[in-house]
Amino acid sequence: MISVVGLNPTRNRKKLVYRIGAVFGQISRLWYHLTPRDTFELFGKMFDVPSDTLEERLKYLIGKFEIEDLIDKQVRKLSLGQRMRCEVVASLIHSPQIIFLDEPTIGLDMIAKQRLRDIINEVNKIENTTIFLTSHDLGDVENICKRIVIINHGKILYDGNIKELRRNYIKVKKIRVKFESLDDAFKPFDFMKILKQKGTFVEFEIPNSKENLEKTFELLTDGYNVEDITIEDPPIEDIIKEFY
Predict the structure, then answer these.
(1) Is residue 190 within 8 Å of 141, Cβ to Cβ?
(2) Of 190 and 139, which is predicted with more confidence?
(3) Which segments within the chain are labelled E, that is strand?
(4) Any residues with CB less than 8 A from the CB of 162 and at least 6 apart, and which?
(5) How far apart are CA 211 and CA 153, in angstroms?
(6) Most exposed among 74, 90, 96, 143, judged by the fewest C-beta atoms under 10 Å?
(7) Nearest to 127 by CA among 119, 116, 137, 135
(8) Which parts of 20-129 are beta strand (E)?
(9) What is the pLDDT at residue 221?
């Protein structure tokens, strides 16, 4: 039997609604011509939050999400990033145990995305709220989630920790090296694939293994004077593509 926060979703549908929240990146729950405050108060009534509790809850959430200057403006006058912060507040008014986030950062600029991700992580940490996230932006996944489920045509391809996904499925590492000087041309091992070389800068890939890393460091430290070195894993998108 499927159980969500101790309730059967079929038999206890109404009770379950009081324990979950949802945010949809492409569908607003805020009334377009009303202010966020109006929606917050309406949601408080819908979820039977006592007036004094609602007042304290809103004071906390408004301060945490830094929307003091937004709550009395009409929703249609808010930017997308401002609206999304208000959307998350609306989903948290009744202190849900679980929040479902569907593309919560879609259309946001880089700064607004990171700000919203930080807030979501803080809610998870402070209120112990379980976050279910669906997103095509894998930056959301890496910044918010500890566990990732990769699904293709209804079949689960991977279900586990993101760190383990990186550790176990990374096939190559990209290494960038800036040498102090190169009297002779850089002479790579056979397993190294040179991507770029200009002056004293060399960028190459190696198959990911402890042995290859040890040989690479031995070559660089024993045979050359290194000014700077950077080791980079492939983006999570490239790792996930290997499953399909």
Answers:
(1) no
(2) 190
(3) 20-24, 98-102, 130-134, 147-152, 155-161, 172-179, 193-198, 201-207, 226-232
(4) 141, 142, 145, 146, 147, 148, 236
(5) 37
(6) 74
(7) 119
(8) 20-24, 98-102
(9) 85
What share of the chain has pLDDT > 90, as a percent? 37
Q: Tell me the β-bridge partners of 206.
A: 173
**Token duo for residue 70:** 């937004």
The pLDDT value recorded for residue 243 is 81
User: Could you tell me how far CA 60 lies from the centroid of its own chain?
Assistant: 24
β-pair partners for 197: 202
Write the CA distances from 76 to 34, 85, 89, integer angstroms: 8, 14, 17
Sheet with 201-207: strands ordered across: 193-198, 201-207, 172-179, 226-232
DSSP-derived letter for residue 3 is -
Pairing of strands 130-134, 155-161: unpaired
The set of residues, in sequence order, having a beta carbon less than 8 Å from that of 167 and lying 6+ positions away, is: none
C-alpha span between 56 and 29 (Å, rounded): 22
